[in-house]
């Protein structure tokens, strides 16, 4: 038996990186998966490889949320799980960042998460239960130089998660947030950011001195999506190799 047998899941930002790891693990654990992204070529390739269903999905757009949710419900008659994974990151110091860049990051990361929660309430109420997992970051606990917009969006996800958990508990809908640290993804390894960060000092600050594989985050996400996490809501789960213990960070 899989951890997610019988579950229907919608995963955003699923074409690559952590999102693709979520898609693969959820399928392995028995879920039926619909995933969205704006990276159509990569999304279609992953769908062909795995058998999951891909939809073009800009999380800033309410109409595209409606279409993604409808796809899951029409195909599988219900929706049990939402993973708000879509996110973008750009290294810019405040003095150098344009308002347009700030707005884009906050719109995708924060507004996209809020729209996702709003969009799945009715189908999850109809199913009489649900689990929403919002992907935040360790930057949702500590600010970092050059990541003001990203940190603002990820701090915001914590607040939305806690408010939604209180609002949706009467409908047996659980809402939690996951806070990855140093994960080996294309976004985290962006050359523009890499040249601004002292990689040696960063690794020395870690308790577990390595970057995580994306699937190491996916295992926590899958647990929170499953019935084994039935008493977890409004909670924050770090997957950071001990980075936030304060040792050198």
From TrEMBL:
A Pfam family the protein falls into: adh_short_C2
- Tell me the InterPro entries matching this sequence: NAD(P)-bd_dom_sf, Sc_DH/Rdtase_CS, SDR_fam
- The question of whether Oxidoreductase is a record keyword is answered with yes
The EC category is oxidoreductase
Q: Which domain of life is it from?
A: Bacteria
The keyword Oxidoreductase is annotated on this UniProt entry: yes
Q: Which UniProt keywords apply?
A: Oxidoreductase
Enzyme Commission number(s) of this protein: 1.1.1.47
Question: What family name appears in the similarity comment?
Answer: Belongs to the short-chain dehydrogenases/reductases (SDR) family.
Q: What is this protein called?
A: Glucose 1-dehydrogenase
Q: Which organism is the protein's source?
A: Nonomuraea turkmeniaca
């Amino acid at each position: 038996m899989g951890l997610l047998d019988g579950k229907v899941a919608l995963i955003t930002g699923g074409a690559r990186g952590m999102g693709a790891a979520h898609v693969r693990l959820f399928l392995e654990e028995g879920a039926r998966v619909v995933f969205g992204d704006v990276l159509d070529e990569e999304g279609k390739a992953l769908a062909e490889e795995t058998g999951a269903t891909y939809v073009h999905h800009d999380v800033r757009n309410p109409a595209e949320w409606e279409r993604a949710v409808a796809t899951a419900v029409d195909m599988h008659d219900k929706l049990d799980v939402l993973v708000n994974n879509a996110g973008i990151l750009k290294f810019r110091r405040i003095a150098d960042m344009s308002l347009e860049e700030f707005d884009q990051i906050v719109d995708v990361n924060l507004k996209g998460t809020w729209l996702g929660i709003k969009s799945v309430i009715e189908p999850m109420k109809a199913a009489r239960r649900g689990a929403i997992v919002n992907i935040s970051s360790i930057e949702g606990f500590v600010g970092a130089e050059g990541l003001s917009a990203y940190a603002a969006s990820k701090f915001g996800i914590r607040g939305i998660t806690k408010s939604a958990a209180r609002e949706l508990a009467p409908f047996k809908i659980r809402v939690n947030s996951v806070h990855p640290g140093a994960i080996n993804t294309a976004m985290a390894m962006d050359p523009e950011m890499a040249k601004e960060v002292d990689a040696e000092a960063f690794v020395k600050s870690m308790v577990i001195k390595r970057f995580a594989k994306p699937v190491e985050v996916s295992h926590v996400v899958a647990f929170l999506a499953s019935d084994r996490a039935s008493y977890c809501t409004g909670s924050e789960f770090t997957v950071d190799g001990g980075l936030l213990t304060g040792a050198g960070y």
